[in-house]
Amino acid sequence: MVCMRIVVVAGGVGGARFLLGVRAAAPDATITAVVNTGDDVTMHGLRICPDLDSVMYTLGDGTDPVRGWGRRDETWVVKDELAAYGADPTWFGLGDRDLATHLVRTRMLDAGYPLSEVTAALAQRWQPGVDLVPMSDQRVETHVVVDDPATGRRQAIHFQEWWVRHRAAPEPHAFVQVGVEDARPAPGVVEAFAGADAVLLAPSNPVVSIGTVLGVPGLREALLATPSRIVGLSPIVGDAPVRGMADRCLPAVGVQVSAEGVGRHYGARSDGGLLDAWVVHEGDTADVPGVDVRTVPLLMTDLAATQAMAQAALHAARA
Ligand code: GDP
Ligand code: CA
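YS: structure for the whole thing
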């Protein structure tokens, strides 16, 4: 097979699992993962990039297979010690092994290195087998507009506070990308799209993962300028996300929780949208005008199933 250049737009856990399949399906390809950094947060003085770390640990064979995020064989001594001081926030899972990543990252950022270079440096250890690129070097942090349960006052809270602390329970009125107006695509992103043979939108959260990446000024334009086909995969199977709480995000942006709803939300490239092809789960139907809709099994139960799913997406990209 000729050497392909594949770009995958991804969030955290769903994106990471899908990338395992892409890497297995195209072992000779150059794969660039453009990863959401809207979930990034500073806690206890440390800069944390949950989605980049999910992809790095998963592809580097260092992730906890049960949780699906963070490090295998993790311990939580520092988290307990912080809690003993009453140091907020106590609701965020910071493992001891994981902490080393955030310490190295924060030190490098403080020394002036941009996030893309810091990410490449961290990846030296993990050898993920893909070029791991943040969507932007500039800070963009997703906030969620909710009604404070105590006061009823409308306010914006950090995405992590809504997602992790409150389990996405408060009704989201809107998602706001704080800082996005000053953001640009990270070095390598525009070039990766321009040189791609296939562009895949992972079955990641359409609102707070894929949507956030595409919100970076200039990134959507760079994606659409790609000479390759753009293929998306549905994170919704039946009428629910396979994992996680994407069903809490989609209605807030007026999108039905279905493969068809998300496909229409992304829209046909021929009609101002993103997609040339849309891959939905066996048994689901999706009428997305102007888009080549394919049906294949979309459950990432093991590597073989995930590889087959990636293969189908790459096939759709060649058509
Ligand atoms: P996060 O940043 O960790 O929330 O992860 P992503 O945004 O990358 O991915 C979350 C999405 O992955 C969820 O909406 C899930 O529905 C989707 N997902 C997880 N596992 C599977 C799977 O096996 N198949 C499909 N089609 N989607 C999945
Ligand atoms: Ca995420």
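YS: worth flagging: The longest strand covers residues 141-147.
IM: good catch. Also The chain has twelve helices and 14 strands.
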